[in-house]
Amino acid sequence: MAGRFPQRPTRTTVRGGQVAAPAAAAAGIPRQAAVPARVRRWVPDGPLDLGLTLGPLRRGPADPTFRATADGSVWRACRTPAGPGTLRVRAYGGEVLGEAWGPGAEWLLEQLPELLGAADDPGAFVPRHRLVALARHRRPGLRLTRTGLVLESLIPSVLEQKVTTDEAYRAWRRLVRRFGEPAPGPAGSGERPMRVMPAPRTWALIPSWEWHRAGVDDKRASTVLRAVRVAARLEQTVGMPAAEARARLEVVPGVGPWTSAEVVQRSHGAADAVTVGDLHLPGIVGWALAGDRDADDAEMLRLLEPYAGQRHRAARLILLSGAVPARRAPKMRRVDIGLL
Q: Which residues form the signal peptide (predicted)?
């Protein structure tokens, strides 16, 4: 069935902005699975760009839980409420084909429309600035994903606290490869096998030296350990409004507004959960909307006030516009935690 789809280049998105991503070699995932996939077809009610919609779920170009292949497919290896699962998504001719393997296959296919933005309402967004209007016009397929999974966004978000993205991606990659399990179906084998992130109990049992080898300091490791101890309570927040979900997440010591926003943007598709406390975002928003590269969080929120209810979408469109001020300060210094 997959052979009927044409070859198409793949795009993906990281931290809200579109970036070029080298497509994985077709040989990276075997063509045939030992166990047949469960299949679901779905027709979105408007334009859909898989790269823009699912890109925020990718944690770096070598994320073992996410892969974009040369045939236009996006693969995800997930730990669902029903168990591990692998999902392959492909769009063609206005239709989406989802294929899934593993104990979590049915859950993944049931969630497929929301994953691809079925619960999102792009029509509710009204541009108030020419730059934002132009970015939306150029990206009609942008939808806000809703994964329905909290921990898979919370743990990598914690790893991204106060470090460079490269350091955080390296830590996530190392820990998932070391302590995760093979992805069900064809993605779990081959030259670059995908992995499902560890279960909460496995995270809790990771020795301190393994966190150290991954470049994760005690503060972030402790936050992850506290979170996985209440994993079930945190996963329950998918049934709550985003604001209530953030409040419960922030009860966990070490999880603040920056982290909770990063989580619900993905787990809930929260269109208004703008990220505060980010090193670069206020300056980018300030530059795009007011020519102020020195804007702080308060000024960013003031500038985004016309987009109340849709502030996260507005921020993503600003990032996608490419209107980013030239860097004039050194990047965040890398720190060897072994020297602390």
A: none
Q: Which CATH number fits domain 2-126: 3.40.50, 3.30.310, 3.30.70, 1.50.10?
A: 3.30.310
Q: Give the tokens for residue 55.
A: 């890109």
The length of the chain is 340
Residue type, 308: A
Domain covering 151-262: architecture: Orthogonal Bundle (1.10)
Query: Could you tell me which residue, 24 or 118, shows the higher pLDDT?
Result: 118
Q: Annotate the chain with three-state secondary structure.
A: CHHHCCCCCCCEEECCEEECCCCECHHHCCCCCCCCCEEEEECCCCCCCHHHHHHHHCCCCCCCCEEEECCCCEEEEEEECCEEEEEEEEEECCEEEEEEECCCHHHHHHCHHHHCCCCCCHHHCCCCCHHHHHHHHHCCCCCCCCCCCCHHHHHHHHHCCCCCHHHHHHHHHHHHHHHCEECCCHHHCCCCCCEECCCHHHHHCCCHHHHHHCCCCHHHHHHHHHHHHCHHHHHHHHHCCHHHHHHHHCCCCCCCHHHHHHHHHHHCCCCCCCCCCCCCHHHHHHHHHHCCCCCCHHHHHHHHHHHCCCHHHHHHHHHHHCCCCCCCCCCCCCCCHHHC
Among residues 335, 241, 266, the alpha carbon closest in space to that of 114 is found at 266
Domain boundaries of the chain, sorted by first residue: 2-126, 127-146+269-325, 151-262
| pTM as predicted | 0.87
Residue-wise pLDDT for 165-220, tens only, equals 999 999 999 999 999 999 999 999 988 999 999 999 999 999 999 999 999 999 99
At 93 the pLDDT is 86
Q: Which of 223, 210, 220, 218 is nearest to 176 (CA)?
A: 210
